[in-house]
Task: inverse folding
């Protein structure tokens, strides 16, 4: 049986299309990833599936319950960890869990048992009785994951579970998520804009951009699309001239140019690099740097959208900064 | 439909937060008490027209100040949805398998309890300062009116909250809604002294009947018959709570 079935799900905000007719299914017990830059529509998708937002059109079933007709059925079957903390800072960790347990109708005896279990799972037992406002970012995340698991949901949504965490905590949380999926067979849907995260954790990944799925498959199969290694070279001189030359080579599978850097895919890249440099020199172009790597999901994203997620990120940050500055001015 | 455990836990959360925020308790008591002390002392020797001669101003003022305290605390309790939204906690509440009605009732129960505690504290401080109530029946009637005022304005707070995106409009609400409601209510002076046109505004202000009912219960004087205050306040509290719940249910939370 499918844990989630989505058909042509769409959400518009004042004419802006955040999610554009996406369809997919998630199998029971699967670890499914939504990968894409900020603003791609990942969170909006999750919020619709979690009954917090009403879709503009389309259908979806979560654990067999229709997200419009049987909201309560959906709510009972899911756990969710939001992108931004959703904890009450003026309560202790334990009180936050108690609040959750009572909202989900867990009786007193089970409540105590479950709270103990989930606190141990995320290693917060000793910090359970201090106010959440004194928690670090990583502790808050762990507490939220514990909370999301407490009522034993069939499906767990994790919206950017490691956003803004340091590398060590991120590793920890990855391990929890894997263990959880293996041990308790809970279906997990996570959104992320970290390539490594999707690659490391997910059975299948949907790459999302501008509200649409541009690709959906297992990370390995997605990387196979690229076909071999990625060689990037940075040059002085006419990039188009070089592209025209390279195009004639049989062993080049694809060429992408962006920001003055030429990325090509080919098999056995390390053996082809000298040839490429020779070719460039023959037509009077100097090669400043060469970079070879095995394909990552970043390349897959570049392949399908012509952009990298990272540059998407920086332009976003700049825009956000502007918004913040504007807001502060208004407040004055 | 109504989930008792959910109502209880929402109420409990409100109580814990209230008891932990000592500065909030003191802060919200300070303004009514300053009004009481300075207006009371300043105007006590003055003779306010339309007021019975044997009642001094402080005695007239105390029920008004109790009403003021409850007005502020309750409207904020309704608006606190916006704070939960700002800090993300609203999503945790909204994604729970609990009817929206239970959530509204839990919030009203929590808000009304804190408002009641504040109203009683103001009254208690007044007792220490020598305020005397009419009789033994004053007490339950006063509490009844405190609850009615409170639910009315929590409902109003919920309506306002559903119309706002974030907490930035808070100052506007304070200056253009809460303060006018307070000044028009006759908390500080008999509304009979207001020019006719403005008096009509007082007649549509729920707090007018709330304060009048408190005054009738506590000191036995009022502008309207007591039963009229009671019926109108019950009406107002039902209308605002139903509307507040309706708008809360309608607003998207993510």
Result:
């Amino acid at each position: 049986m499918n844990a989630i079935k989505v058909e042509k799900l769409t959400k518009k905000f004042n004419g802006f299309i955040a999610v554009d007719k996406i369809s997919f299914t998630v199998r029971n017990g699967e670890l499914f990833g939504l990968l894409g830059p900020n603003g791609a529509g990942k969170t909006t998708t999750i919020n619709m599936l979690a009954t917090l937002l009403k879709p503009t059109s389309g259908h979806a079933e979560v654990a067999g319950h229709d997200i419009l007709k049987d909201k309560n059925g959906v709510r009972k079957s899911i756990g969710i960890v939001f992108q931004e903390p959703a904890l009450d800072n003026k309560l202790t960790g334990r009180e936050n869990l108690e609040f959750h347990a009572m909202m989900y109708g867990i009786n007193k005896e089970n409540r105590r048992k479950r709270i103990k279990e989930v606190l141990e799972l995320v290693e917060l037992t000793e910090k359970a009785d201090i106010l959440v406002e004194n928690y670090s970012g990583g502790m808050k995340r762990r507490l939220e994951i514990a909370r999301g698991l407490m009522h034993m949901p069939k499906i767990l949504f994790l919206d950017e579970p490691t956003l803004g965490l340091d590398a060590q905590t991120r590793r920890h949380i990855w391990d929890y998520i894997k263990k959880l999926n293996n041990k308790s067979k809970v279906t997990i849907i996570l959104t992320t804009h970290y390539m490594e995260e999707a690659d490391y954790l997910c059975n299948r990944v949907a790459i999302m951009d501008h509200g649409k799925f541009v690709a959906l498959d297992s990370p390995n199969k997605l990387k196979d699309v690229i076909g071999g290694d990625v060689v990037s070279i940075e040059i002085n001189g006419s990039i188009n001239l070089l592209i025209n030359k390279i195009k004639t080579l049989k062993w080049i599978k694809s060429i992408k140019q962006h920001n003055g850097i030429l990325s090509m895919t080919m098999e056995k890249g390390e053996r082809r690099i000298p040839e490429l440099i020779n070719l460039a020199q023959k037509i009077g172009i100097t090669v400043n740097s060469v970079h070879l790597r095995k394909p990552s999901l970043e390349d897959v994203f570049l392949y399908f959208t012509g952009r990298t997620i990272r540059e998407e990120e920086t332009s976003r940050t700049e825009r956000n900064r502007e918004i913040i500055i504007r807001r502060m001015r208004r407040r004055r | 439909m109504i989930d008792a455990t959910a109502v209880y836990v929402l109420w409990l959360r409100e109580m814990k937060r209230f008891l932990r925020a000592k500065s909030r308790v003191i802060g919200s008591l300070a303004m009514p008490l300053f009004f009481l002390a300075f207006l009371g002392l300043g105007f006590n020797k003055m003779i306010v027209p339309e007021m019975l001669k044997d009642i001094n101003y402080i005695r007239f003022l105390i029920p008004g100040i109790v009403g003021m305290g409850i007005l502020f605390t309750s409207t904020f309790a309704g608006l606190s949805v916006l704070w939960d939204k700002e800090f993300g906690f609203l999503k945790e509440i909204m994604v729970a398998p609990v009817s929206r009605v239970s959530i509204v009732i839990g919030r009203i129960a929590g808000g009304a309890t804190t408002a009641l505690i504040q109203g009683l504290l103001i009254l208690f401080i007044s007792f220490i300062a020598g305020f005397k109530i009419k009789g033994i029946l004053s007490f339950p009637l006063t509490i009844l009116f405190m609850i009615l005022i409170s639910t009315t304005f929590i409902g109003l707070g919920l309506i306002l909250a559903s119309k706002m995106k974030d907490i930035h409009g808070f100052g506007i609400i304070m200056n253009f809604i809460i303060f006018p409601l307070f000044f028009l209510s006759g908390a500080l002076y008999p509304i009979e002294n207001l020019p006719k046109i403005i008096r009509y505004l007082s007649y549509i202000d729920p707090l007018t009947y709330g304060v009048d009912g408190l005054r009738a219960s506590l000191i036995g004087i009022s502008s309207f018959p007591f039963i009229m205050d009671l019926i109108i306040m019950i009406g107002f509290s039902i209308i605002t709570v139903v509307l507040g719940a309706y708008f809360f249910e309608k607003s998207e939370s993510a």
Observations:
- Chain A touches chain B through 30 residues (CB under 8 Å).
- The first helix of chain A runs from residue 42 to 49.
